From TrEMBL, chains A, B:
Homodimer. It is found in: Cytoplasm. Its EC number is 2.4.2.22. One of its GO terms (molecular function) is glycosyltransferase activity. Converts the preformed base xanthine, a product of nucleic acid breakdown, to xanthosine 5'-monophosphate (XMP), so it can be reused for RNA or DNA synthesis. It catalyses: XMP + diphosphate = xanthine + 5-phospho-alpha-D-ribose 1-diphosphate. The keyword Cytoplasm applies. Xanthine binds at residues 20, 27, 156. The keyword ATP-binding does not apply. This is Xanthine phosphoribosyltransferase. Keywords: Cytoplasm, Glycosyltransferase, Purine salvage, Transferase. PANTHER family: HYPOXANTHINE/GUANINE PHOSPHORIBOSYLTRANSFERASE, XANTHINE PHOSPHORIBOSYLTRANSFERASE.
Length: 199, 199
């Protein structure tokens, strides 16, 4: 997705060989026009899959999920990272380890909102080691719903989350695939493929 | 806002005289078409105020803020409830006590995204005791920006958050104002005013 790649090149900050900071347009300050374009793109890629629910994890997955769900005409559910007082009964839970925060969170959804008749599209902002996406997938499976696909805004293709998901036969659509963050520079997978083709 | 009141009547669950559960359409599962209508309504009410940023608090404020910001053509920022490893420098912070969760959280925004030239619209899902809105207001003031107004999806008018904000001269726009949750029933302020008028 060209608009997203441009935004990453212009406004993303490479903090290390593993960390890309995109908090000026995706996960702290949010560019709503970009989110609309992202939602339209996810909706197009999964349009014919009979999606009944979009599922994401608070908080950075909410804006792209909002726009995807609006376009597809279905509700979305955001999994909570821990229990609140008004959300204690009939929960489905999973454990997710965050390498960034170096902590394990319980993520939870209410049984009320995802069930056996649902065809679920999982959306998240980043895919790195796959912990969050696998946790969401676990929630969908425990709910006896069908996980139709996974939509990722930015995939760090040099980490193995994408491989783990694709090896399970799941359709993973990543709008930007980052091959490396070496030497302070963002290199996209598409660029490399293009360079190879035209070399 | 009639659409919202109907949704609350049909799908809201009164758990006690203080607690209204709206997790089927606002703060766990989210109805994107309702969020679009909410965003349009907030944008209309604050259209001529020269808003440059929308500010909210993760997570339930994100969907209505997304739609408001999209309509107004400005970015939105969601304050984080605690620090993450990629968000540690140049933070503006405030303390917010949650009566629901009975805990105090530090909320934070990056100085990079809200500054002295900004005219900020604060958006949140609920207004009860006003702790969250006052915390967001504190962030705006510490950033030396101007808080133009506060947009609330559901105000519990029988608690004093709205009064605290309005006493400071801030324009507060609440799309549904709940007068009471007594006897397991949601009574809106507008209904009471209407009943009084027509009595």
């Amino acid at each position: 997705m060209e608009l997203l790649q441009e935004k990453i090149k212009q406004n993303g900050k490479v903090l290390s060989e593993n960390v890309l900071k995109v908090d000026s347009f995706l996960n702290h300050q949010v560019d709503p026009i970009l989110m609309q374009a992202i939602g339209d793109e996810f909706a197009d890629r999964f349009r014919d899959c009979g999606i009944t629910k979009v599922l994401t994890l608070e908080s950075s997955g909410i804006a792209p999920s909002m726009m995807t769900a609006l376009n597809l005409g279905v509700p979305f559910v955001f999994a909570r990272k821990r229990k609140s007082l008004t959300l204690v009964n009939d929960l489905i839970t999973s454990e997710v380890y965050s390498f960034t925060k170096q902590e394990t969170n319980t993520i939870a959804i209410s049984k009320e909102f995802i069930g056996p008749s649902d065809r679920v599209l999982i959306i998240d902002d980043f895919l790195a080691n796959g912990e969050a996406a696998l946790g969401l997938l676990d929630l969908v499976q425990k709910a006896e719903a069908e996980a139709v696909g996974v939509g990722i805004v930015i995939e760090k293709s040099f980490q193995d989350g994408g491989k783990k998901l694709r090896n399970q036969g799941i359709q993973v659509e990543s709008l930007a695939q980052i091959r490396s963050l070496q030497a302070g520079r963002v290199q996209f997978l598409e660029e490399v493929q293009h360079e190879t083709t035209t070399a």
